Q: What sequence folds into this?
């Protein structure tokens, strides 16, 4: 069974956050803003493309106003489904609306050790996080959970990618690529693994995250990278991060409009330049805690907004990859559990194809490997919930109910044996008696998660071929030399 | 502002877990089982009522087979909306599909002290729990959360009710009545609170949970009680507890049929005896962990089964009330948080009006007040999510977006000031920076919850009318004789 088979949830019954009429109203408001106000594209290349296709461009302010018919034309070329490649084909991830994937998060700079000490992150941490991700069945893609701060800034993103590839054959999400030259080096590394550019385009080994800037900006590097990645067949998530009441209206519907404008504007520029480019409707809206001034990704309004984004993605026929995690909890504790559980559940029920990411605390600033183990357990339960309830003759089992009548002898029935294996089973949570738990030393769940981390880290991965490692080294040194 | 306004979710974000055809299939399978196999009613009074209305009754086996027409005719008199009365009217809880409530759980036998010690439960624990319920915004009703094991068995249920009512002005849930005379004493106590039998019917101070026995049994005391309570206007939640793969099919849809057949057969009986009696669709199904043999009420299949029941309740137009907080975790922590969060969200997104409940660990055995503080926080978030996203010209704010253009100055705009107070705010969870948290002593969530519990327990109890206290004492003393 391939990894994706275990992640199949089938056609999903959805959470109805916005009625269809309201989805259309958000869409229409988006078109109005794109046509009347436009979006600032800090990229000459993007402005060239937009102008050539009928947008009104002001070179000085870098603003492009995008008429509705241009948006429609661009949206029509979006691919409805594609595959995210694993380093090995059994880790390929079809993005087709019928699978649900959870990935590791990215970009933190600190690590919470087993003992609770917090320190700066290194490349070794990137590797270990990818090792743990690799060992967890319900996690589908690695990411540089933390920054490899012990490597030179100019080649850091390549070191992080290398660490992920060495640690795991799973797909990788690349978050911190900023420069076009970095993207080109990443593509070369990925081509070396895939065996060429055509193979890479068919089974792209990584997905990039490109953030837009709220309200209504597309950064130069974001747009330039998008064109480079699209040309190589690499999928990317367009990731607005509006803040309720700061860089977008405080009312969730208003933020949904801003978020959607930023995604659609980028989609339009990229699809016009590279029709068929693989794009994922993404985003990580946050709320502002008005008392502390801190951003809050796990506020219920943020969760609802990500659910709304999944609905908007479905409206355009785009895959939905949503931000998740971002718990404000300071340890793997009840808060981390309730926030991540609720956000995961709402986003996947609303239709997310994948959700990025797991493993971070303190608003995505501190990595805790226990968190990956916890999220893996919860996502196993959520996956079962997403599969829903089969209602047919075999599952209704009316004949069996009539036969058993008033006797509770279902346990020894063939029907029970045939379906018992479909039942979810806990891997981390306690299921036994209180006495058994006491006898085992009354371990907390965080302690049990830590033991699992240690177990996973003790396993050595299948090493990559020497020539591939040499090629990685060559690409990384070339990038470092070019910079110096 | 009446308390229930805080529990209003309106139209509610819903999960379309089943379509109309699937709901109909489960209903028809239920009718098929009720007509062909029937249900055992271990109550002569129940069998008399059913026989008089055309059910085919076998006195020896106590089985009544219920023809489909009889079922449909009885279900037609179910009331669709009613109110659960608080001790004080401001805590009345309308059950109308637009409000959601969580109560404390029921029937535990141990108390976990804040230092982690676990000991047998006593009456004072119910009082403590009721005080916590009273103090929490999102916990709407008290219950016999643990057994008052220091009180005599024959009056225990009355002592439990007494403890809840003396320490909270909210509605109360009674779980462990077994005998008809216990119900009659409870009704006397409740009448004293409500101000008479007619008042009690209008604003019933308590709800009774009556368990059915899977597969397809109605106990004698359950049915006799249901009729006594129905007559007094007390709402009854019929509460099947099938175990997937043991006392019902291992498949969720099959267990839903058994669960539904037990609910419907009980509802039919009370509607025939007392048309219009207040009935609630309940249930606390469990799954068996095939490795340890332990029951789990928060396995995902069980959450799905309760979700299916929510859709069935909607089909019959009755309020829905399910178990949700019975984590198998052994201490307040990570597992209790994720299990109860999943269970709550799934229940309410699939139509539950009430979930029962919060505060117990280890599969509903150990009272842990800290856990109620955690569940209260989560319940607040769940409510906010279920209220959904309002889409209007004011909330989409297109003119504002156009005016702001490419500048992020929303913070100082009137529109932000107008709506900022609508944003949810954390009460228990950390929202600040790591450094602030460290400086403040790096308190864990459970520690913060302990402090909140201590603060609540140290505060004076809400005033309880003296004459009512004397009346309660008299009823209990009479029952003891």
A:
């Amino acid at each position: 069974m391939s990894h994706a088979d275990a992640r199949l949830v089938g056609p999903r019954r959805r959470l109805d956050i916005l009625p269809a009429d309201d989805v259309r109203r958000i869409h229409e408001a988006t078109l109005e803003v794109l046509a009347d106000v436009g979006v600032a594209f800090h990229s000459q290349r993007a402005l060239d493309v937009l102008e050539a296709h009928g947008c009104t461009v002001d070179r000085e302010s870098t603003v492009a106003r995008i008429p509705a018919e241009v948006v429609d034309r661009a949206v029509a070329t979006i691919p409805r489904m594609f595959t995210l490649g694993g380093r090995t084909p059994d880790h390929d991830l079809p993005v087709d609306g019928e699978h649900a994937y959870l990935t590791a998060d990215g970009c933190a700079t600190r690590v919470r050790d087993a003992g609770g000490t917090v320190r700066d992150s290194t490349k070794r941490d990137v590797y270990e996080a990818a090792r743990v991700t690799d060992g967890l069945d319900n996690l589908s893609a690695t990411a540089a959970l933390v920054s490899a701060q012990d490597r030179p800034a100019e080649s850091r993103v390549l070191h992080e990618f290398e660490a992920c590839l060495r640690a795991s054959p799973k797909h990788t999400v690349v978050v911190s690529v900023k420069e076009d030259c970095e993207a080109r080096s990443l593509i070369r590394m990925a081509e070396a693994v895939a065996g060429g550019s055509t193979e890479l385009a068919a089974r792209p080994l990584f997905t990039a995250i490109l953030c837009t800037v709220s309200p209504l900006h597309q950064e130069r590097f974001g747009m330039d990278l998008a064109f480079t990645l699209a040309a190589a067949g690499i999928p990317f998530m367009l990731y607005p991060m509006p803040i309720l009441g700061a860089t977008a209206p405080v009312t969730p519907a208003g933020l949904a409009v801003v978020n959607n404008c930023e995604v659609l504007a980028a989609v339009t520029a990229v699809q016009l330049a590279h029709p068929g480019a693989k794009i994922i409707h993404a985003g990580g809206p946050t709320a502002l805690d008005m008392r502390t001034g801190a951003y809050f990704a796990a506020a219920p309004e943020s969760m609802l907004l990500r659910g709304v984004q999944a609905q908007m993605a479905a409206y355009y026929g785009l895959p939905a990859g949503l931000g998740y995690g971002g718990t404000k909890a300071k340890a793997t504790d009840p808060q981390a559990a309730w926030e991540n559980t609720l956000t995961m559940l709402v986003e996947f029920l609303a239709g997310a194809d994948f959700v990025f990411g797991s493993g971070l605390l303190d608003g995505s600033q501190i990595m805790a490997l226990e968190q990956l183990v916890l999220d893996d357990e919860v996502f196993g339960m959520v996956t079962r919930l997403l599969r829903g309830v089969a209602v047919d003759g075999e599952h209704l089992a009316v004949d069996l109910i009539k036969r058993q009548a008033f006797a509770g002898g279902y346990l020894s029935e063939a029907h029970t044996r045939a379906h018992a294996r479909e039942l979810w089973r806990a891997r981390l949570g306690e299921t036994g008696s209180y006495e058994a738990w006491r006898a085992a030393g009354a371990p907390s769940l965080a302690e049990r998660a830590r033991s699992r981390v240690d177990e996973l880290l003790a396993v050595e991965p299948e090493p990559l071929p020497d020539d591939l490692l040499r090629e990685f080294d060559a690409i990384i040194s070339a990038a470092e030399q070019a910079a110096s | 502002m009446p308390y229930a306004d805080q529990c209003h979710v309106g139209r509610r974000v819903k999960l379309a877990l089943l379509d109309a055809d699937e709901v109909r299939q489960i209903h028809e399978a239920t009718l098929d089982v009720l007509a062909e196999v029937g249900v055992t009613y271990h109550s002569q009074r129940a069998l008399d009522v059913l026989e008089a209305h055309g059910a085919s009754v076998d006195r020896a086996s106590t089985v009544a087979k219920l023809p489909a027409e009889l079922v449909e005719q009885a279900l037609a008199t179910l009331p669709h909306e009613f109110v659960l009365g608080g001790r004080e009217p401001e805590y009345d809880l309308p059950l109308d599909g637009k409000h959601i409530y969580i109560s404390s759980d029921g029937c535990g036998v141990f108390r976990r002290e804040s230092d982690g010690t676990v000991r047998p439960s006593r009456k004072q624990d119910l009082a403590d729990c009721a005080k916590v319920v009273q103090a929490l915004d999102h916990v709407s009703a008290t219950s016999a959360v643990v057994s008052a094991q220091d009180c005599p068995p024959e009056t225990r249920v009355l002592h439990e009710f007494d403890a809840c009512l003396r320490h909270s002005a909210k509605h109360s849930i009674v779980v462990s009545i077994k005998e008809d005379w216990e119900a009659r004493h409870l009704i006397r106590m409740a009448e004293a609170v409500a101000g008479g039998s007619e008042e009690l019917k209008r604003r019933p101070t308590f709800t009774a949970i009556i368990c059915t026995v899977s597969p397809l049994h109605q106990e004698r005391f359950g049915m006799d009680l249901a009729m006594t309570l129905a007559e007094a206007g007390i709402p009854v939640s019929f509460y099947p507890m099938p175990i997937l793969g043991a006392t019902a099919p291992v498949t969720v849809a099959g267990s839903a049929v058994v669960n539904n057949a037990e609910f419907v057969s009980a509802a039919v009986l009370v509607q025939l005896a007392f048309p219009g009696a207040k009935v609630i669709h309940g249930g606390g199904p469990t799954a068996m962990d095939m490795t340890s043999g332990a029951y789990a009420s928060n396995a995902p299949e069980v959450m799905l089964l309760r979700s299916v029941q929510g859709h069935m309740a909607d089909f019959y137009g009755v309020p829905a009330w399910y178990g949700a907080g019975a984590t198998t975790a052994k201490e307040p922590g990570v597992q209790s948080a994720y299990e109860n969060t999943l269970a709550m969200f799934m229940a309410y997104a699939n139509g539950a009006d009430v979930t029962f409940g919060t505060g117990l660990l280890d599969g509903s055995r150990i009272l842990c007040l800290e856990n109620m503080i955690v569940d209260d926080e989560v319940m607040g978030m769940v409510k906010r999510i279920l209220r959904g996203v309002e889409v209007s010209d004011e909330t989409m704010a297109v003119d504002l977006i156009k005016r702001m253009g490419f500048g992020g100055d929303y913070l100082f705009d009137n529109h932000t000031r107008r709506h900022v107070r609508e944003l949810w705010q954390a009460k228990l969870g950390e929202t600040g920076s790591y450094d602030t948290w460290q400086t403040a002593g790096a308190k864990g969530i459970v520690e913060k919850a302990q402090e909140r519990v201590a603060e609540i327990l140290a505060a004076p109890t809400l005033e309880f009318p003296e004459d009512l206290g004397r009346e309660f004492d008299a009823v209990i003393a009479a029952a003891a004789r």
